[in-house]
Specification:
This protein is of the alpha/beta class. It has three domains: 204 residues, NAD(P)-binding Rossmann-like Domain (Rossmann fold, 3-Layer(aba) Sandwich), CATH 3.40.50; 78 residues, N-(1-d-carboxylethyl)-l-norvaline Dehydrogenase, domain 2 (Orthogonal Bundle); 148 residues, NAD(P)-binding Rossmann-like Domain (Rossmann fold, 3-Layer(aba) Sandwich), CATH 3.40.50.720. It contains 17 helices and 16 strands. Helix 15 links the parallel strand 12 and strand 13.
Length: 464
């Protein structure tokens, strides 16, 4: 079987290398010359553990190629996987122009002497696949759906940092069809034969239901994440222990433990944006999704509150006679194992602190000075004279009395706290401060610091 993956974005390249693992020959289409050149040099579009090695392996085996010749490979393929990233007109509205442009190119290139399964892997707003199917019939009236081609909704939830695992071993596979086409079911069974052998559940339904299943899944996850962050703050106020709370409620069969981790906020583009679009879709139908909207509001309050807490610590030090205007931030990406800083709480906090004329020293394992990832940092931050990227945790520590842990990089677990203590700008009679929004450590490990986490039965210094 031959598969063409359209667009070399994050989902596209992950899908391509995983389809190669399944034994298929795959072409990734990319019309941007610079991105295409990088792909040919085995450079992945974003950091994802294992993806570069898989690219090299399958290119060497001649199972994976990259090309800008979309018509040629569409003609040769049994399946087309569309993974065009969706732009945004606003926080609540998607820009589907690039997706429809690519679908037009696919339509005009489809073969008429065979069958092609067209999988929409892109996570789209509810109703999009129906529009695509309608447009396809208009653009190619000579082709018959179910005989020459089928539009197949096939969204997934690929978590950055574990996307390859999620693709190769998903909790379920979602398949949306306009009608019960036997050829569509056959191509799905062939494309995902490896997953069928693992007894992965396949959910078949209409387009709108499949699109809503994905959006509702993310909406529920966002609600769980916002909920546990609120419980962590409640633990602080009433003296309870968040770790035991999570353990206790996770044993309940109706709840479970997944996504119950304290964090500085829900980041990345997929979760918060999908939840907002879900809420906007409901609003357009005259309905208010109170639970989802409340979770989004809770997350916004969570992120903006971090700056407020840091500023309180700065004010406390100012009152003691020495004005502290330098803060070290550990972690830029919204979670470990990814370079993605889109909607990262860390980026928002840094921008807020710079707005308060605070000098910020930031360290992230993937955003070291001179790294390619630096270009992703918003210009308002990168060009600010008070923003500094540093080479290590220890260089960051040497610059301030306050360290704020924002990303749960495993590297931070091996910090030499004795060395850290020696480097921080201590004042006589005071301890350096670590503000940990990931609850990575325990109070007993931090006797030489003022260690502020959430809900770990630590003394709460923030007034309510």
């Amino acid at each position: 079987m031959r598969i063409t993956v359209i667009n070399s974005g994050y989902v596209g390249v992950v899908s391509a290398v995983c389809f190669c693992e399944f034994g298929f020959r795959v072409c990734v289409e990319e019309d941007d010359p610079q991105r295409l050149e990088k792909l040919k040099n085995n450079t992945a579009p974003a950091h994802e553990p294992g993806i570069s090695q898989m690219m090299k392996k399958h290119v060497a085996a001649k199972r994976l190629v990259f090309s800008d010749n979309l018509p040629r490979y569409v003609q040769q393929s049994d399946a087309i996987v569309v993974s065009v990233p969706i732009g945004k007109k606003s926080d609540m509205d998607s820009d589907l122009s690039e997706l429809h442009k690519k679908m037009e190119q696919v339509a005009l290139s489809l073969k008429s002497d065979g069958y092609t399964g067209i999988f929409i892997k892109t996570s789209v707003p509810i109703g999009t696949c129906s529009i695509i199917a309608k447009n396809m019939r208009f653009m190619r009236p000579d082709l018959v759906p179910g005989e020459h081609y089928d539009i197949i909704a096939n969204p997934g939830v690929l978590r950055e940092g574990s996307a390859i695992h999620d693709f190769m071993s998903p909790s379920r596979v979602l398949i949306g069809l306009e009608s019960d086409s036997q050829k569509a079911r056959a191509i799905v069974s062939e494309v995902y034969s490896s997953l069928l052998k693992l007894n992965i559940p396949f959910v078949y339904s209409d387009y709108e239901t499949i699109e809503l299943i994905r959006a509702a899944t993310i909406g529920f996850i966002v609600t769980k994440m916002a909920f546990i962050n609120e419980m962590a703050e409640l633990c602080d106020r009433c003296g309870a222990d968040i770790n035991m709370l999570i353990k206790g409620i996770s044993f309940d069969n109706g709840i479970g433990s997944k996504y119950f981790r304290v964090s500085p906020g829900i980041g990345g583009t997929s979760y918060p944006r999908t939840a907002r679009i879900l809420a906007a879709t409901a609003s357009s139908l005259g309905m208010d999704l109170h639970v989802i909207n409340s979770a989004l509001t809770s997350n916004k309050i969570r992120v903006t509150g971090i700056k407020d807490n840091v500023m309180r610590l700065i004010s406390d030090d100012s009152d003691s006679g020495d004005s502290v205007r330098k803060v070290s931030i550990l972690g830029l990406s919204f979670k470990q194992l990814t370079s993605d800083i889109r909607e990262s709480a860390s980026i928002t906090v840094i921008q807020d602190l710079l707005g308060e004329n605070v000098e910020v020293y930031a360290y992230d394992p993937l955003y070291k000075p001179g790294s390619e990832e630096i270009s992703q940092i918003p210009p308002k931050i990168a060009e600010n004279k008070n923003f500094h990227l540093v080479e290590s945790v220890y260089e960051a520590a040497s610059q301030s009395d306050i360290i704020v842990i924002m990303t749960n990089w495993s590297e931070f677990m091996s910090i030499d706290f004795k060395k850290l203590h020696e480097l921080m700008n201590k004042k006589p009679g005071s301890k350096p401060i670590i503000l940990d929004y990931r609850n990575m450590f325990t109070k007993s490990e931090m006797n030489d610091f003022i260690y502020i986490s959430q809900g770990q039965r630590t003394k709460n210094i923030f007034p309510y």
